[in-house]
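In this section we walk through a basic example: taking a raw amino acid sequence and producing a predicted 3D structure, encoded as discrete structure tokens. The instruction is simple. Fold the sequence below.
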Amino acid sequence: MAHEYDTAERDLERAGMTLSRHPSEAGVDWRLTLPHGEQIEAWEPGTAGLAPPPEITRFIRSILAGKRLVPDPPPRALPSEEYGRFEELTRRLVRPPRPAGSGAA
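The resulting token sequence is shown next.
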């Protein structure tokens, strides 16, 4: 079973990245997906490793900025002010269709 890892604040997600851990009988496969879809993979023997190996860590160290990675972090909440602006923009862009014959030629 694969588990996604991120900071509690979802810093990797905001950077357009995903980090997942895929345990198997012989070891753990870590996969980092970068913003444009490229994947970096690193394998570790055994299944006790709960931190990504250096091959992965070097790509995310600056984004983590010393924060802890957590398995399956909670979804990032959309700030209510940001959601309100989204709703207003949606109302402006999506208008109900006009009845036939009511528009100008």
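Looking at the output, two observations stand out. Residues 80-93 form the longest helix (14 residues). The chain has three helices and five strands. In the next section we compare this with other chains.
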